[in-house]
Each structure stands twice: as C-alpha cells, then as structure tokens.
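Re-running the complex after MR caught last week's input typo. The corrected sequence lines follow. Everything else is unchanged.
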Amino acid sequence: MSETTSPLEDLEHDALTELVNIGVSRAAANLRKMVGDQVLLSVPSVEVVGRQDAAALIRQRESEQLVAVRQDFEGAFSGRALLIFPEANSLALVRAVTGDAMDGADAAEMEQEALAETGNVVLNGCLATMANLLQRPLNLSLPQVIRGTGQTLFELEGGDGHTGVVLFLYINFAVSGRDIRGYIAMLMDLPSLENLQLLIREFIERVMGPDGEHGR
Amino acid sequence: MATTVLIVDDSKLARIVVGKAVAALQPTWLRIEAGNADEALALLRDQGADVAIVDFNMPGRNGLELAREIRGQHPDMPIALATANVQDEVIAGARAVGATFVSKPVNEDSLRGFLSGAGLKLRGAGA
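Corrected-run output:
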C-alpha cells in the first residue's frame, strides 16, 4: 500500500486504535449472543490511505463477491461503517443467527432481514461505544444490505469519488466452529478525521488527567 | 521490597491509563510495562513482578495465552485480564487460569477490587 501521511500523532493513533478495539470487542460480544459461538477478532488496523487503496486492500484478499451491511453515521464526525463477508458465507451466518432452525429455502428468504439485523447489532455496538467514549452522539442510518466488490462497497456518495484520502479502519472476524468470517470496516473522509482528531485529543486529556505523562 | 505490577497492553495509552489507576489505588507499587506477550515474559524473567494486568486483544499471543503462561510459572500470582470483550468464552478462559476479569475501559473503580484483593493476598503470603 502506498504511504500516506497521517495527520494523527502517535498517541492519537494509539488512542483511536484502542477506542476501536473496545468498540469492536463489545460488538463481538453482541454478535456472540446472536450466533451462539465465540467470535474471534484480530487487532484493529487503523490507517490513512488513498480511497482506492482501501478498496484494493479488500479486493486483494477477496476475489469473490461480497455482501455487506452498511450504516452511515453522522454527528461530530461522519463516515460509513460496514460489516463485510464473502457472499458464500452469508447463508451460514443467517442460519447461525436464526438458531439453525431453518432449512435452506427459509434461510434464503430470511437472508436480507437477518443480515440487516446482524449488521445493525454489530455496527451499532461498535459505534455507540465509540460515541460514548468520545462523549458525542452519533446518528446512525438504517442498515442497508449491499452486494458487490471491494470497489463498489467503498464508494462514498457526494464525495470527490475516486480521489482523496480516507481514514480506513478494519478488523477481521471469524466465528469459531463455523464457516463464517469477514471484516468490520469504517471509512471517514479527511474533514471528519480532523473533527475526530479533536475529540481524540479531548479523550486523551480526559483519561490521562491534567498531570498526564505525555510522551516518553 | 516494593510490590511490582506488570502492565501488558499493545496500546501505550491503555498502559498509561492502567498505570494511573494503579498509582492512585496502590501508590507505593512499582509499575513496569510491556507492549506484547514476549516482552512481558522477558520482563518477568529479568525483573520479576508480583501482580500482572494483561490486555486481551494483542498482536501475537493474546492476553489469555499470556495469562496461561504466567500462571504456569507463577501459580499464586494475582493476574487480571482487561478487555471489553465480554464473551462467555473469554470470561470462562479468564476463570480457568485463575485471572480476574476487568472490563475496559479501565478506571480506578474497575481495578479497585482486583488490586485490593491482590494487596491482601500478597501481604498474607508475606511478600
């Protein structure tokens, strides 16, 4: 991936990664309640990359068709959150959340609804935790199920399309003992990142206190 | 000799936050820090510690694997596993290695019970 300079300082980047980690860990606990099996997570990756590079990152790993549940969020900072998995996994996920009670045809019928609800629980769990830690409310759009490639999932509307840099966060997840794996991803454009940076600074000050041992 | 607490987290900010909470609750304790499991085990070997507070989701070995390893070498050491990942398996895993589950974000309230218990246990053992 091409190097892009992040406006975030080391400790800010560290703090954002930790915020995402806490958010995603809570979201995983929610998902675990839905699927009944342990949800395994990677350590979050937080990078400032070209928009094209974000799409390429997923495309390189996933040549198949993908399904994603997408929720846009707005407030003090705005962006898009996605729960992404290979389309081939999607019915396994639906069966897991519907308690294995359904046969193939019923599960297929329920697919759209079950995916939207799963995405809603996971993405809400993650974003709400982050919003609480940053002490700013976020409005979340309704979940939308979309299908496509890494390219199409990451196009933000109304932006300058294919140029510019974005803050790109992603975490791999897998469900223990089931053929279910995917990504939780978040995209934010630069103005949002600048707003987020201010909130992260406040957060750092809050948790470290006035006599915080800045740097080393 | 002063009680030493080993703080293990890949996030520097999280280590600072845990360190501050420890300093507030047990001001006389010495704090040492590691950013991953390997560093933590090396520090334990070279400097030793009486108490460990370990993050769960870290690159390389996770906090449960580290806690298991520490437990193998130190059967009586008070160990806390700090995470927001409240899945049954993670909590059960912590219990299985005799580690206390501490929810993230860590603050004085969430660490108080563990640290006072650890302090009592160490005094009881004559440490």
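None of the earlier attempt is carried over here. The interface with chain B takes residues 10-11, 14-15, 17-18, 21-23, 25-26, 28-29, 32, 38-39, 41, 43, 129, 133, 176, 204, 207-209, 212-213 of chain A (CB under 8 Å). Chain A has one domain: 10-207.
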